[in-house]
Structure to design on (170 residues):
């Protein structure tokens, strides 16, 4: 089991929960019936002690990756929950996502041609669809609305958008 776990950890960035799930699946696939051949919790804890598995580092890396692709804090929180990262290990990653919220939202808007990145002024229905897409991507409703309401071609100043969003001027 240890060699299987080492190979997996060497190949993929993972969490304790994902490693445990992988090992459980491998045991099931080989047709093992009865008691597990090893204490998987002890094995994953030992890997964490050795620094081979670090949930906090995994969470921070996911935060940077998702923010870089334009996704928001809620999307990150769901991703970390699915990966089995607990609240203590995800706190720093969620704080990083908060700090990058406006930049990530602008990146998403640029990729999807929303607000100032649109080719033409959208009608109300199109603007609502754009806001909904940003909210599904994990961005706050107010921030999504602030960006979607900017006219096409408007100069994008992230500090101004942050001020509008934080000051609830929208």
């Amino acid at each position: 089991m240890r060699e299987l776990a080492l190979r997996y950890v060497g190949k993929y960035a993972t969490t304790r929960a994902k490693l445990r799930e992988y090992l459980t699946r491998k045991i099931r696939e080989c047709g093992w019936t009865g008691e597990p051949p090893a204490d998987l919790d002890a094995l994953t804890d030992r890997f964490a002690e050795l620094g081979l598995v670090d949930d906090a580092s995994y969470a921070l890396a996911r935060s940077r990756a998702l923010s870089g692709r334009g996704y928001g804090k809620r999307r990150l929180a769901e991703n970390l929950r699915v990966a089995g990262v607990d609240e203590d290990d995800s706190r720093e990653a969620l704080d990083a996502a908060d700090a990058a919220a406006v930049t990530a939202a602008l990146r998403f808007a640029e990729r999807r041609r929303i607000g100032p990145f649109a080719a033409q002024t959208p009608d109300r229905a199109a603007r609502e669809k754009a806001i909904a897409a940003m909210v599904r991507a994990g961005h706050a409703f107010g921030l999504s609305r602030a960006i979607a309401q900017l006219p096409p071609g408007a100069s994008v100043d992230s500090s101004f958008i942050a001020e509008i969003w934080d000051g609830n001027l929208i």
